[in-house]
Design goal:
This protein has about 270 residues and is α+β, with helices and mostly antiparallel strands. About 20% of the residues lie in helices and about 40% in strands. Strands 5, 6, 7, 8, 9, 10, 11, 12, 13, 14 and 15 form an 11-stranded antiparallel beta sheet that branches. Strands 2-1-3-4 form a 4-stranded parallel beta sheet, sandwiched between helices. Strand 8 and strand 9 form a beta hairpin. The structure holds nicotinamide-adenine-dinucleotide.
Length: about 270
């Protein structure tokens, strides 16, 4: 819980369309009228107005201060997975933000480290949804190591390593399981693996616990693309990509109960 007496600093990120911008302006005015401070650099609370993509953007913008910032999402399009407040509820949300100490729920993230053949600096990323590795030219061939042992040599379109909250995104489209975010785990799902008498992969999504690191090692020298959530990165000279549950977590501000399985049902079955 946030201590009631501390002044709250907030920021709002908008999808950028007219509806989201108007809503952003309205919320900003209401919250400042309530005596809260608008602070884009060091917010305690980030309100994302738009869709899941807007919250992913906000997460990456503030991912250097995850221990100090909580997130809440308002959706201006269809029901978002991370953006569950609707525009008609913003007065209720503003009052809840201004008046009550709020509850924080923490969800696991994925840490991705890219190391290069030439040595030098490694690159470290945090993903809220997933990391994907896809070949740009031809079949992707990657050795998959789990907890230090070679598990398989993957041949196919690519691999997706997702967080529990990201399990309902790209991972779900690949036939991966939906994981409850209280599970400290990551999931490895295949994209169109080649399976025949010569080449073989497990063919099922794998769920790894927090203390198991998964390392992908390129076998052939094809160009491949690494994505972290909505961001696409083109890496050359990659020796390995290391994935594990991150030490950091994302913190969501909760102003009302919204059980995970209800969110899954409302997003995918009926609302
Ligand atoms: P986008 O606008 O194309 O969004 C894709 C869809 O993914 C949207 O409908 C969004 O609401 C939904 N989404 C995002 N996070 C989700 C989550 N955690 N659970 C359920 N649905 C979720 O692209 P964007 O806004 O830039 O978002 C990037 C995300 O799109 C990636 O992180 C990836 O998960 C997802 N994506 C999905 C597929 C697929 O399902 N085949 C393909 C590419 C990317």
């Amino acid at each position: 819980m946030r201590p009631k007496q501390e002044p709250l600093k907030f920021a709002i990120t908008s999808k950028g369309d007219a509806t989201s911008n108007t809503l952003m302006q309205k919320m900003k005015t209401y919250l400042v009228d309530f005596g809260l401070e608008y602070d884009e650099d060091e917010p305690d609370l980030v309100i994302s107005v738009g869709g899941d993509g807007t919250l992913l953007y906000a997460f990456h913008r503030y991912c250097q201060r995850l221990d100090k910032t909580a997130f809440v999402g308002v959706h201006t399009g269809h029901l978002g997975f991370y953006a569950d407040w609707v525009p008609e509820e913003i007065e209720k949300l503003v009052i809840a933000i201004a008046k009550t100490p709020y509850q924080i729920v923490e969800y696991p993230l994925l840490e991705v480290i890219v190391r290069y053949i030439s040595g030098g600096q490694e690159a470290r990323y945090l993903a809220l949804n997933e990391c994907t590795v896809k070949s740009l030219t031809g079949t992707l061939v990657m050795d998959v190591e789990i907890k230090g042992d070679l598990f398989e040599t993957f041949r196919g379109d690519g691999l997706c390593i997702s967080t529990p909250t990201g399990s309902t995104a790209y991972n779900k489209a690949l036939g991966g399981a939906i994981l409850h975010p209280s599970l400290e785990a990551i999931q490895l799902a295949e994209m169109a693996s080649i399976n025949n008498r010569v080449f073989r992969t497990i063919g099922s999504p794998l769920v790894l616990p927090a203390h198991h690191t998964c390392i992908l090692k390129p076998v052939n020298q094809v160009d491949f693309q690494i994505s972290i959530d909505h961001l696409s990165l083109l890496h050359k000279d990659v020796k390995l990509i290391q994935c594990r549950v991150a030490d950091e977590k994302i913190r969501f501000a909760r102003f009302r109960p919204f059980p995970f399985w209800k969110r899954v049902r409302d997003s995918f079955i009926a609302d």
